[in-house]
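Bug #77: duplicate submission created two jobs. Keeping one. Sequence:
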Amino acid sequence: NDDDDDEEKDDENDDDIDEVDDFPVIQRFEPHPPIPDEDIPHARNTFEPTMLNFASPAAFTLQLGMNELFNRNKASLKMYDEMIKMINTYTSSKRLGTELVQRKAFLSKVEDIFDTSSLKPVMGTVRLQNNSVATVPVFDMKSQILSLLHDVNIMCEDNFAKGIDIFTGIVDDDYEPNTHYGEIHTGDAWNTAREKFCGKDGKYMPFGMVVFADKSHTDLHGALSVTPITFTATFFNRNARNNPKFWRPIAYLPNLGYGKDTYGASRDKLQDEHNCLAFALKSLIELSDAGGIRTTVMGKEVVVKPFIHFFIGDTEGNNKMLGHYSSSSKGVPYRDCRCRFDQLNITDPKCKYTRAGEFQRAMRLVHSNENEGMKLLKSMSRHCLKNALFQPSLPLSDSIHGANRMMPPEMLHVSDAGLIMYMQESLQGLITGGRSRNDLDRLHIRLYNDIRRQSERDFPRGSLRSGILDTTRCQSSERKGNFFLLMCIAHTAAGEFILRHELKFTHTHWQRWKEFLQLYLAMEVWFHDSNPKDEVRRARPAISSVLTSLQLYFPRQADSNQYNLPKMHGMAKMQDYVCLFGSAINFYGGPGEASHKSFVNAPGLKTREGGCVSLQNKQRGNITIL
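Kept job's structure:
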């Protein structure tokens, strides 16, 4: 009988358990008796590498040292095996040649062979307001542009946007996708910029630049931070622009506040940052004044005319670049228009964009009549400083508004890290804790796992690190994924029972609330899609309706600014910038944030300090970047 056998086995196991201090200890492990040395073939009193089939003690010593070196520097195991293959290939060669040299000597030889010395940054010195100096690594713009144009792996048809001649910038009106707001050249601002720098006859090759600038942190406290400024060309298609290989650095701006308790006036700190930015843009200005670059691209002799088409960055970074007041305080309007603070919640704004001449006139007035000039700057919410982006020779695509209308709001910070976060925080106050919140989180986990098993893979990615309404322990894109899961939960019977009871909605309000969740997510996808131009131009009422529902169904706390927020205003005018620069995916900050891995994190990990650090020389007061 099988049951009897099992009982006998259980009895045998019970005999092996002794009670020690009321805790059962299972004594099943019996160590093997030691094996006599005479029973071990080829036994030795000392360890020799030949036991592991090493060709020589030197090979064993080499691999032992390599193993210790890789462990000490936390290198990957795969890289260890690849290094062994490279060494074996080298040693098996009949012509070993000279001995290997150190890294710096080898890089110097490679630099001479391939003539890449012009790609090295120049360590420029910038005088700061406190009479100290900052060292700013700046790259030569001509060399960086030519490194793109002369790379045969980059300059190929598969990487170009369709419907445009890259050598003249002329858009093919007969190409059907050009009737949609898709790639950058489909925006209304492209032809104006091309004619400004290259004329109408196609004599020059326009090189429109998309510039991305955003601070990157390599530690938790923000001390080891740096602001890389990078660019790519507008004639590359979306897939190419998402690849860091198609981006080039302009400069690395240091953390000027490192090691300082206080920086003094905020205007002084901002002026120091603009002095560093002006030094970074000096090479581009000189290149524009020289008439461009005469070179050969894909076998054709051209004169390349570089200019900045638009900037990508977050709200804080764009405000600093324009010298605008911080938008977190009350009474501060939006950075690019004349809308007042109390008008930022309007879902269908009629914006009058700030012209470049207005700021320049205010600065001239400061020199002749300081009081009147400062009043005018204050009415514009602008700091009194020498702005690097308002230099007369800086090649910008917009001649009327300058950089003011070249910094479009983008979905990563406006929606994923903005409005969606505000909606989740509103639900935290509307939905009580306890059992309802726990049941909602259990539905969140269940649906998250169900969606992972779907064949469709283009759903927004959520996060399970915390509850579905928690906004602190997830990335910006993951908030959108959790918002999508909330919409799915609302369409289940269990989710409807929890949410409708907590929100105290009638049947009509509940149906409209669910419809809003769908419309908001659809609006996000629509902004990033390629849509007919007539449809985009007529979309303002529909966008306004969605944003009005957002303010109705997700009220904010009474002691807050309500929805008088720059991010609400930025979402309301998103359609304007789609008309200017094409689909909103063109100025989405996600690829730029991801490229920090290549431009900041990867180089930082190769340094001895383990990061791209800003150091302050106590004797000279120098700030530099390693």
